[in-house]
Amino acid sequence: MASREIWSLAGTFSTWVKGFVILLILSVCASSLQAREYEAEQQRLDKFFPGASLSAAEGDYQVRTITKGDEVLGYAFQSINVVDIPAYSGKPINMQVLLDPQGVIVDAYVLEHHEPILLIGIPEEELHAFNAKYQGIRVDQRVVVGRSRDENAVTIDAVTGATVTVMVVNEIVMRAAHDVAVSLGLVEDNAGIAQKPATVREDYYEEATWSELTGNGAIRRLHLTKGDIDEAFKGTEGEGIDEATADEVQDTFIDLYATHLNPPTIGRALLGDAHYRTLMDELKPGEHAVAVMGSGEYSFKGSGYVRGGIFDRVQLRQFGNVISFRDMDFQ
Fold it and tell me: Is the model's pTM score more than 0.70?
């Protein structure tokens, strides 16, 4: 294992986790940003729905209905009333999102942000140009910043130098738009057709080895060599850049493991009984701990990771919901 970072975890597999780190899903601190009126709100409404009327804000998400006569043209809301996701600065970004009655995004516009990289370096126009790309996207589509092998996903190019910020913007727009559209009955709630969520049986424990846990899928692994990376970039603009030599093609680019620590069979095996119990006692009801373990040249923390920032290469996705992790979630 590479020893670029050494984190000791006492327990049955302490020799396996050198060079590994552990990531916890904990509660995110609430921000002080509150919804208010912005001049830009009416300007965007006039641009996309000229001559339309706007109702008072209603419901948990404070949604306003856009009408012309008796016809409903769409809906408007501020993202801060739906999701409160800290960005690079540690403070949330507030956006106005306009939807049509079919659950398609008409406009997504940043009303307020405190991103230092946009205040001192990158023109704000680049962020607005990025936001404009959401026009015409359905709220139940998967949107990925950058490249994706998912043929059904919509891909949007990142803003150079502001990758973390635009990833958070993507999460805000799609989560907020999806939640509002579901609440209005514009799209189906995919989570509603899923099976009843599984729950962890805290009373069940079966002694298991590392080989057994990786073999049965309880701990999942992704191992990529430098040769694998070169092959993946063939036919793209990245082909030939920093290509591995013949002696390097089998070298590890990343060796990544991930698992859910709450099940006793997994958590106790990895951490040992004492550390597992301490961790479980720290979690609030409904919270979960996830171990992300990695070595190699490519860090799962992400290119944009800084103190106070987010892990832009590690996310949880389920039924349109996306959870990103911040350094405050990290042990």
Answer: no
